[in-house]
Amino acid sequence: MAQKRESRKKGRHTATVLSNVRAGECFWKMRLRFSGEAAGVFARFQPGQFIEFDTSDLAIPATDSIPKALLDGARRSVLLRRPFSFSDVTVQDDATIAELLYCVVGPASLRMTTLRAGDVASLIGPLGNGFTVAQGKRTALLVVGGMGLPPIRCLARLLNTEHKEVETIAFIGARTVTALPLEERPAAFEEGLSLSVPTFATLGVPSMVATDDGSAGHRGPVTECLTRWLQENADRDREKLIVYACGPERMLEAVARIANDRQIACQVSMERRMACGIGLCQSCAIECRIEGSNETVYKLCCQDGPVFDAREVVFGTETA
């Protein structure tokens, strides 16, 4: 069983923006510095936890810098905070540095691109429960789908620094090369299962890329790479394997099925519209099985998750 999850101190905090730069066609990477009490709070951030980012007072970019697809909605009011998970968290002297990778998809994330070094960001967190590292595991298989990268990248660092006995391998998938939330050039990817993506290679983690259209790495869903690896390593002790996944729900369902069929432990980070992040709005319900029963119960992604044991989750197609 995984180690008991600890309750984390959460509340409203501010962070200083160190940098905020474009990291792809629609991706941006923001580095934040927490100091004082917040530095201690976020030093204990669990990979898979999240923060609620306030964009209500941020400026709207100049019209000529707004993507055409967002022009109509760019000036829409933004009342609610937006949930994000950090892709990296490091402690430096008396400060904690966090990296936030985000995709510009609407008026809130569009406003975030206007933040510059020295600006102050308002956020609430850490929120929810993240990934846990179970005792006795010796191989961790990290599965990423699109913007599921941040919490998995954060987990990779934790495994690399605090669980060096665990061999870690990453599988990264997206619809097409431009949808990969990576800074590497497409030329860095080749067909096969021996890729080295710098995003994970810097942590000593070998990684494999898959795109649905074959524009980078393996042609097909990333779950095919996971399945092939498991077939080629069928002699490994399943009790010592664990799968961690974050991405679109259809991908998570496929990963959960692959792990369950092989009786491999699996944790999935679910995605829901988490308007408040603290369980008040009840908008992020997820149907879950009651262990030892045919009955189900609804849990909140923001409080009980966003990370769940994959065997617990009732996925959409199971009830369709």
**Second rung of CATH, namely the architecture of the largest domain:** 3-Layer(aba) Sandwich
The fraction of residues in strands falls at 25-35%
CATH superfamily of the largest domain: Nucleotide-binding domain of ferredoxin-NADP reductase (FNR) module
How many beta strands in the DSSP annotation? 16
Question: Can you walk me through this structure?
Answer:
The chain is an alpha/beta fold. It has 2 domains: 6-127, Elongation Factor Tu (Ef-tu), domain 3; 139-309, Rossmann fold (3-Layer(aba) Sandwich). It is 18% helix and 30% strand. It is built from 7 helices and 16 strands. It has helices at 37-43, 107-112, 149-162, 198-201, 222-232, 249-261, 316-319; strands spanning 11-22, 27-34, 50-53, 82-84, 88-92, 95-103, 120-127, 139-145, 167-174, 207-211, 218-219, 241-246, 265-269, 285-289, 296-300, 307-309. Strands 4-3-7-1-2-6-5 form a 7-stranded antiparallel β-sheet. Residues 1-9 have low confidence and may be disordered.
Question: Would you summarize the structure shown here?
Answer:
This protein is α/β, with parallel strands linked by helices and 320 residues long.
